[in-house]
Amino acid sequence: AYRNCLRLAADNGYKTMAFPAISTGVYGYPKEAAATIAVNTVYHYLSLKPMPEKVIFVCFDEHTADLYQRILTARSQAF
Description:
By secondary structure, the protein is α+β, with helices and mostly antiparallel strands. Helices cover about 55% and strands about 15% of the residues.
């Protein structure tokens, strides 16, 4: 889902893309696993393509935002 959305955004010239924490609410997918997949997929895609320029992860609570921040920080330090 992430790659397809990013590709569609790039193909249509969108500079910004936003993603919620997919399936972590009612469907109960583990938040840490979802955040790791989202961040890694976006990083990989953007390492190959320059668009979109900005990706926003929309978090519905502080715990989820903290998870994303921790994973983003760890991922950015790996580069």
